[in-house]
């Protein structure tokens, strides 16, 4: 079992002919993901890496029955690309692009809501989603872990990869990189709910970071709605106040958004929080060994 992405998922790539789109389309194909086409209005009717290129998402969906789009377009054009995916009512849009203006993300997120939330948006500024052994939509390496029964949701791409690798002997149902921007589509809470409902997931790793209150809200949700064991890691314990650290959303203002505050909120509801990624992996290992 997996959440949102399975072996039946049919993937298209918006921006397939660009350098990043090409590179990661080849990687996704090599991993066994069912990539069925791409979108580039200027190159419609051609083929790229052996795949048909269409003028629009709607046309690609009609011709290929695609239900996932992975978006590799420059930041200036990301909002229009996501809106096109929303208009076509594709069930899942994975927005890899980094550097999307927050105003644009807010705009296409509001657009999705206004259109009835028929398209789940993951990202932007994220590594995507992978269900090991089944499918891979984005830039998560396909060979660093195995299929298993751990679910992972993370703000950080790099830490996603580290935890997947460190727990490779247990494996993952699905790993979701939600991105670290201040405004994102799918949240920790969305993933927690999906993993809670997934019979193929036994335990959950949640990776957060300083800035905002997403982890505190996730803690409140876990207390009331999640019965599966959760372990967490919060990046940024040594970050100086007022400095943006890596992700645009990772900034501490006064006492709000600190790693310590997030750790305390999570531990208060029974989530075990590691001081390092490796300790977090060890905590999950203990849980899985005792099941």
From TrEMBL:
Residue ranges of domain CoA-binding in the record: 5-100
Coiled-coil annotated residue ranges, if any: none
Pathway membership: Carbohydrate metabolism; tricarboxylic acid cycle; succinate from succinyl-CoA (ligase route): step 1/1
The EC number(s) this enzyme carries: 6.2.1.5
Active site: 247 (tele-phosphohistidine intermediate)
UniProt keywords, alphabetically: Ligase, Nucleotide-binding, Tricarboxylic acid cycle
Any GO molecular function: succinate-CoA ligase (GDP-forming) activity
Cellular component aspect of the GO annotation: cytosol; succinate-CoA ligase complex (ADP-forming)
Reaction(s) catalysed (UniProt annotation): GTP + succinate + CoA = succinyl-CoA + GDP + phosphate; succinate + ATP + CoA = succinyl-CoA + ADP + phosphate
Residues noted as binding substrate in the record, renumbered to the chain: 161
Amino acids binding CoA: 17-20, 43, 96-98
PROSITE patterns with a match to the protein in the record: SUCCINYL_COA_LIG_1, SUCCINYL_COA_LIG_2
One GO BP annotation of this record: tricarboxylic acid cycle
Pfam families associated with the record: CoA_binding (PF02629), Ligase_CoA (PF00549)
Family the UniProt entry places it in: Belongs to the succinate/malate CoA ligase alpha subunit family.
Function summary: Succinyl-CoA synthetase functions in the citric acid cycle (TCA), coupling the hydrolysis of succinyl-CoA to the synthesis of either ATP or GTP and thus represents the only step of substrate-level phosphorylation in the TCA. The alpha subunit of the enzyme binds the substrates coenzyme A and phosphate, while succinate binding and nucleotide specificity is provided by the beta subunit.
Protein name (record): Succinate--CoA ligase [ADP-forming] subunit alpha
Organism encoding this protein: Herbidospora solisilvae
